[in-house]
Write a structure and sequence with these properties.
6-stranded parallel sheet; 44% helix; alpha/beta; Rossmann fold; binds ligand GMT; 13 strands; 376 residues; elongated
């Protein structure tokens, strides 16, 4: 089977998930074609002989204040589908990928070379951006025109059904993790450098957008630090990084918090972590948290969106209301202040991550591809 994948190539969760899916499918012998404006981040780490990358070029012209990416993308889809004889197109994140796919399919219908497309909803395409009236009619239309729809959690499926008039079944296919790549390895030398006096290491990974509430991470850490000697590693970059750094400085914590920026070898960092903090305003699944759990890291998170579907309260970590930094820090101190308890939480975290191993989840996509192609 030849599969086209369209995604955002950046560090965002949807792009990471789409890339991991493409890699996993290519490992199983499928031919995978990525169509996007840059090489996806995780694709650049190793060479995969079954994976092709087609760059969408968006020529500029003085008339264009806003170069028409969606038009360029739909044209690229048409060209790749025809020239590479794809069997199915899988678009990740509704905006503008689903509408571009619909457009491409309509063009191809004229020549009899059209193929079906699947849309995977990831989160903010539904919870924040998609229901904005600026985009809503196009989002609703193109989701409904998809030959199949998937969502990454039960919570996101319910949210989509609440916010849009969806006329089709939404299949829930959760995020997955490759435990061969994401597992705890011996990185004691790193730990020694970052926490020379045996401090606990806390980690947050995100794109530092307001929805991630990175200031809450700093606030929670400030409270933990008073009770448990610890260090915090902030991984990623985005609009709220400066505010988080300013807050760390004003709380006198700048030497205990390292803002490491965007990092590609996340599993090495997670290998030395004792706790992962994800206090998001909304989080449809929380791929970064799943990757942490696969590295035996328990989770302190908010209870928003799909987080309760992965974080079992009192077992793999704790859930608190959004913004309740007191509860989050109390729970973190409870886990971190006792060695045996921490070990139990770590064991439960990895056991829970195994429910989302890629071997369990990839076949769900394969089955859906086959059904959609057969029914087209
Ligand atoms: O904000 C992000 O985390 C990026 C965002 C995206 O769409 O690129 O991630 C979403 O998709 C991930 C993969 O399915 C999910 O694990 C994240 O929970 C989801 N983010 C939000 O819902 C905020």
């Amino acid at each position: 089977m030849k599969i086209g994948i369209v995604c955002y190539p950046t560090f965002g969760g949807s792009g990471v998930l789409a890339t991991e899916l493409g890699i996993a499918l290519s490992d199983k012998g499928y031919e995978v074609h990525f169509i996007t404006y840059e090489q996806p981040v995780r694709l650049s780490q190793t060479f995969h002989p079954n994976i092709y990358f087609h760059e969408v070029k968006v020529p500029t012209y003085p008339l264009f204040d806003f170069p028409p990416y969606e038009t360029a993308l739909a044209s690229a889809m048409v060209n790749v589908i025809v020239n590479q004889e794809l069997d199915i197109l899988h678009v990740h994140y509704a905006i503008p990928h689903a509408s571009a796919a619909y457009f491409a399919r309509q063009i191809l219908k004229k020549t009899g070379k059209d193929i079906p497309f699947i849309t995977t909803l990831h989160g903010t395409d539904i919870t924040l951006v998609g229901r904005d009236t600026t985009y809503e009619p196009v989002v609703t239309f193109s989701i409904n025109e998809s030959d199949a729809i998937t969502a990454v959690s039960d919570s996101l499926r319910a949210e989509t059904q609440r916010s849009f008039k969806i006329e089709k079944e939404i299949h829930v296919i959760p995020n997955f993790v490759d435990v061969k790549r994401f597992h705890q390895t011996d990185k004691d030398h790193f730990k020694q450098m970052l926490a020379p006096d045996g401090e606990r290491i806390l980690v947050h990974v995100s794109n530092f957008r307001p929805v991630k509430r990175v200031l809450d991470v700093v606030e929670v850490f400030a409270r933990i630090k008073k009770e448990v000697p610890s260090k915090l590693l902030m991984i990623g970059d985005g609009p709220d990084r400066q505010d988080a750094e300013d807050l760390a400085r004003s709380l006198g914590l700048y030497h205990d918090i390292r803002f490491l920026g965007k990092q590609e070898q996340i599993s090495e960092i997670l290998s030395i972590a004792d706790l992962f903090i994800l206090p998001s305003q909304t989080e449809s699944f929380g791929l970064s948290a799943l990757e942490a759990m696969a590295c035996s890291v328990p989770l302190i998170s908010s209870n928003s969106g799909g987080l309760p579907e992965i974080n079992i309260n009192g077992k793999t970590g704790f859930l608190s209301n959004v913004g309740d930094v007191e509860s989050m820090s109390r729970n973190a101190i409870y886990i971190l202040s006792d060695e045996d308890r921490l070990k139990e939480f770590k064991k439960a975290a990895i056991a829970q991550a195994r429910h989302f191993e890629k071997q369990r989840i990839i076949p769900m996509y394969e089955k859906l591809y086959c059904e959609v192609i057969a029914a087209y």
